[in-house]
Specification:
The chain is of the alpha+beta class. It folds into two domains: about 80 residues; about 60 residues, no CATH class. The protein has four helices and six strands; from the N terminus they run αααββββββα. The strands form two sheets. It has a three-stranded antiparallel β-sheet with strand order 1-3-4, with no helix packed on it. Strands 2-5-6 form a three-stranded mixed β-sheet, with no helix packed on it. β3 and β4 form a beta hairpin. The longest helix is centred in the C-terminal third of the chain and has 37 residues. The relative contact order is 0.16.
């Protein structure tokens, strides 16, 4: 037996490319699962209620709601307080929960005599923190993928060039 037959045949470029492609797909799938797990764990751990972040305050609508309790409210543009619905049931809401008039909502009488609701700024900065967290998880996932693939590529190249 000659010394050349004992040595394993070096991988061809096509074999290296196939191995690298298979490794890349495996790393991508693993990081998709891992990044989603980190995101969901962070969302669960933070206790952020996405429904409360995005929902705008409800306003009583006499055509589809049933008022349960009235209270007096100061109205900007009116001399005397006006009686408004404070607690109601929305008939189109399948949960059946009562809706409450928020204290921070200001009632304004317009020039036409109608009442308008000023809810103020509805900005919840936790939404920006959640978006930053998602961006961070994605950036770390992409960086980890690139580094893992580069390391594997180097290892493949070193296997083909080391003498036996």
């Amino acid at each position: 037996m000659s010394p050349d037959t004992d040595r394993p045949e070096p991988d061809t470029d096509a074999d290296k490319a196939r191995k690298l492609r298979r490794y890349s797909h495996g790393v991508s799938a693993a990081l998709i699962v891992a990044c989603n797990a980190v995101f969901l764990a962070g969302l669960w751990g933070s206790g952020v209620n996405l429904d409360a972040l995005i929902r705008t305050p409800d306003v009583f609508d006499s055509t589809k709601d049933v008022c349960l309790r009235f209270t007096w409210h100061r109205v900007i543009g009116a001399d005397e307080p006006i009686q408004l619905c404070h607690e109601w049931i929305d008939l189109s809401d399948p949960s059946g929960e009562t809706h409450i008039f928020h204290k921070e909502t200001k009632v304004v009488r317009g020039g036409d005599g109608k009442l308008y609701f000023d809810h103020g700024a509805q900005v919840d900065y936790r939404l920006f923190l959640l978006a930053a967290f998602v961006a961070l998880v994605i950036a770390l996932g992409v960086t980890a993928k690139r580094r893992l693939i580069a390391r594997y590529r180097m290892r493949l190249d070193m296997q083909g060039t080391t003498p036996s």
